[in-house]
Amino acid sequence: MGTQAPDLTVAVQDYLKAIYTLESSRERVTTSALASRMGVSAPSATAMTKRLAELGLVERAPYRGVALTDEGRRSALEVLRHHRLLERYLADRLGLALDEVHAEAELLEHALSEELEAKIDAELGYPTHDPHGDPIPDRELQLSHGSEQTLIDVEPGGRAMITRVPDGDPELLRYLDGLGLVPGSDAVLVSFAPFGGPVTVRTDAGEHAISRELADRIAAT
Amino acid sequence: MGTQAPDLTVAVQDYLKAIYTLESSRERVTTSALASRMGVSAPSATAMTKRLAELGLVERAPYRGVALTDEGRRSALEVLRHHRLLERYLADRLGLALDEVHAEAELLEHALSEELEAKIDAELGYPTHDPHGDPIPDRELQLSHGSEQTLIDVEPGGRAMITRVPDGDPELLRYLDGLGLVPGSDAVLVSFAPFGGPVTVRTDAGEHAISRELADRIAAT
DNA sequence: ATGTTCTTTTAGACATAGCTAAATCCGATT
DNA sequence: AATCGGATTTAGCTATGTCTAAAAGAACAT
After folding, report:
1. DSSP B189
2. Digit-coded pLDDT (tens) for B16-35
3. A169, B100, B168 from B182: Cα distances, Å
């Protein structure tokens, strides 16, 4: 009985994904935040948020930013599911490196039919996480998210397995790979330098210091 | 030293592919033929042929139609390579049926990076033909095309292996599949009815009569 | 050779999504 | 409470690719 969802344009889908991500990090989704994330000018972002509001995908308050509606969130999760399933596929079946999958999935995600998505999902055995460790929404768009801790939550001297690294920045991912900090690998938290200083971790690749900010972007159990 | 190719839009690529196909069947590429192939109005086709001419991809003579330039043909072959490689991949690695691969490849072909194309090509072992039997241009965009004969060239009583069927029409492909007429299968040419009448062939699926026009669209050796 | 018909092109419009320049609003500082 | 500065929106423009209606050209038939 619900309104039939018209096909969302590629741009609309990209904005929804960006808004979803910004909301996830508990930031207010302002015009400037969105514009910067999308790499467009502020007026362009304003125009698009108006479109999204007309489509019923966001609540918009002028000068205050936007928030996804339930429908908007559902659409965003569909895009995210496409993206992360493709990342998993590209890594597992075509051997793409961790730093390459994001960009390729970005290109392909809007061209993936529901039928092909289902085939890929089945072929992979219904994976729950992408290669960076981000959860893949299931067919009902449910996300498995336990409360996560990051490297800065590990006790000094403690051991942890890396579960998630930031996606989207190939250079950062190559750097982390060189440090042995990839999902699935083990790390020992050697020490926290005082005064908010760097964090030292030991992995198969030896002992390395990284900034506290970066450590907090790496999830571990 | 050549002019750096700017990224062609999706629409431009689709038109190039359509023009290439029309040229291949030795038809004059008129505005109306192109419009009908692309499913757009005649004025839209006129506008696009002008754009293509400005981009140096076709020679255009007003009221006479268009012909691909060398550069246009190269671009068309690149699109065709994407399309046919993807069809091969979808059939071989994801188990899509012969009548499904065309539409999916159509969606994905514009989102395929050169890097991923190379990976897929290697993964498949550098295939030379797509699942319909159409040749896949190689990395140098060379096409392997020996002079082809079709079912109507086979002697009555003769045996032939199907090498190519028409792509793009799922219904037709399901019909042919039901008749056992798929690339790789064997067929015996039973008889030609007189007065341009139907052609009877025997396959694993029994004996069936098809029109002469259809028989001529099925290649065999 | 001329007129009629069919094809093609021109003219003018719309939708999407981007831009810059200018105006306006909000909130923080005084 | 007034003002100033930064964020946001409005105004107006561009490019792509589509459309319909109308004009113009090409080609065929008489």
Report:
1. E
2. 999 999 999 888 999 999 99
3. 46, 14, 14
The partner residue sitting opposite B111, judged by closest CB among A95, A108, A123, is: A108
Residues A81-127: tens digit of each pLDDT: 999 999 999 999 999 999 999 999 999 999 999 999 999 999 999 99
Chain A positions touching B121 (Cβ under 8 A) are none
Q: How far A101 CA sits from the closest chain B CA (Å)?
A: 10
Give me the numbers of helices (H) and strands (E) for chain B, helices first please.
Answer: 8, 8
User: Is A96–B119 a contact, with Cβ atoms under 8 angstroms apart?
Assistant: yes
Cβ B66 vs Cβ B19: under 8 Å: yes
Any strand D atom closer than 7 Å to A44 CB = no
Render pLDDT for B62-95 as a digit per residue (tens, 0 to 9): 999 999 999 999 999 999 999 999 999 999 999 9
Going along B24-136, which residue ranges are E strands?
58-61, 65-68
Residues of B in contact with A112 (CB under 8 A): 107-108
